[in-house]
Specification:
Layout: H1 2-15, H2 35-50, H3 57-62, H4 67-71, H5 74-84, H6 88-91, E1 92-100, E2 104-111, E3 124-130, H7 142-147, E4 158-164, E5 167-173, H8 180-188, H9 195-216, E6 218-219, E7 228-230, E8 236-238, E9 245-246, E10 252-254, H10 266-269, E11 273-275, H11 279-296, H12 311-320, H13 333-342, H14 353-358, H15 360-377, H16 381-386, H17 391-409
Helix pairs in contact: 9-11, 9-15, 11-13, 15-17
Length: about 400
């Protein structure tokens, strides 16, 4: 199967011009490091140069964020693990560093077979969590208590949990192509991506969120590009439950202001108390922001014009601006109808997760899934997704466009 994937990528690379859409040149999601943090990094570097062996585990364990200082250095990380959990290095061979976030950091690793010093061929992702409270004031162990109970094809599997000094580590399913940003950059190599590919990503997210709300009563709270992964078989996976809310046995939810600012719904920005019947609408709004970004390389309600730390202004922009779409867009009426219902400012009028599953755009996703197996085995699936070449999907969307047009004319 990996040979077919390599063929797909080779053909895809040959066909791709690696041209970025003009609107997407600014979609870098790079945040400036605060000056105070830069100064601390310089001091840490100077201290490590003066006495590179003077970093004891006791110093690291006093501050849950000090672990970040060693995470980008594999040798320092190994030293920390040897001092605090020596058996860990007998279980895993550490490979590449993948991600560093506010709740934890992720490294690619290869499990070492029991009774042998030989690593297996299967890769895993090791997510190191910073215990205590993270920068958003939320307990990090929720990642373990929530994610560990979830079993769904569109959520990465958990293989194990380890305690390392003041930190914790989750061994989880490795997704070969990383998050959507990485997938666009290294596989698709052109943006905006096709509506067919957007539909495929959308459907995988909806299935995961539907499972969270119907089977577990969980609001994810942080759906965004960086938390959507693509695995070896091009399955879409929703990850990172560090700020998720379990509302089981509750009638009302006091919403905390957690998540990623541009993806936050108006209710989250206002810290409202909502009825649990509207719980899924919080995630649906974030899905709408993600779809808008994937299609137009921008955020709705002119949010890019606002500092991402100015929550009050973000809320004002949402309240004072209408939802508009770029004039030069070739999106279907079905997709635009979906966006309008996902990004409705009024939670009572916004779609919930059940309405998403009944929308024609999700039905289009089911058509793509039916085509996936034969296209994937022929080494064509990624390419056809990229260039809107899944004919049954296109035919279905056109039929639904006519239905939507008739409804709008009534």
């Amino acid at each position: 199967m990996s040979i077919l994937l390599n063929k797909q990528l080779k053909i895809l690379n040959e066909k791709s011009d690696q041209i970025l859409h003009p609107k997407c040149a600014k979609d870098k999601n790079i945040q400036e490091i605060p000056q105070e943090q830069k100064n601390n990094q310089v001091i840490n570097q100077q201290n490590s140069q003066k006495n590179p062996h003077n970093e004891t585990s006791s110093k690291l364990s006093k501050n849950p964020y000090s672990f970040k200082d060693i995470f980008n250095n594999k040798e320092k990380l190994k030293l920390h693990l040897q001092e605090n959990c020596p058996l860990f290095l007998e279980k895993f061979e550490l490979l590449d560093f993948l991600k560093n976030g506010s709740a934890g950091s992720v490294i690619k690793a290869r499990p070492i077979l029991r009774g042998s010093k030989t690593p297996s061929n299967k890769l895993v992702a090791l997510k190191f969590l910073y215990n205590g409270k993270n920068k958003k004031g939320v307990q990090d162990h929720s990642e373990i208590s929530l994610h560990g109970t979830l079993k769904h094809k569109n959520i990465p599997a958990i293989y194990g949990y380890y305690k390392i000094a003041d930190n914790s580590c989750i061994a989880m399913e490795m997704c070969l192509y990383g998050d959507i940003e990485n997938f666009k950059k290294n596989v698709i190599k052109r943006v905006p991506i096709s509506e067919t590919l957007i539909c495929y990503i959308f459907g995988g997210i909806v299935d995961a969120v539907y499972y969270l709300h119907t089977h577990n009563k969980i609001i994810h709270m942080d759906i965004k590009q960086q938390n959507i992964l693509i695995d070896d078989y091009l399955n879409v996976k929703l990850t990172d439950f560090s700020v998720s809310i379990n509302y089981k046995n509750l009638k009302k939810i006091d919403l905390p202001m957690v998540g990623t600012c541009y993806y936050m719904s108006p209710e989250v920005l206002r810290k409202e108390t909502i009825n649990t019947s509207y719980a899924s609408c919080i995630d649906v709004y974030s899905i709408g922001v993600l779809l808008y970004l994937l299609s137009f390389c921008d955020y709705p309600y002119k949010l890019r014009e606002v500092d991402n730390k100015n929550y009050g202004q973000i809320l004002k922009n949402i309240e004072s601006n209408e939802l508009v779409f770029p004039e030069l867009n070739d999106n279907s009426a079905v997709f635009l109808d979906l966006l309008k219902n996902c990004l409705n400012k009024d939670i009572k009028k916004r779609f919930n997760i059940f309405q998403l599953k009944n929308h024609p755009f999700y039905q289009g996703y089911q058509i793509i899934l039916n085509e996936k197996e034969k296209l994937y085995n022929a080494g064509k699936f990624v390419i056809d997704l990229m260039v809107d070449n899944i004919l049954n999907f296109n035919k279905f969307i056109k039929e639904k466009e006519e239905e939507i047009g008739k409804k709008n004319n009534l």
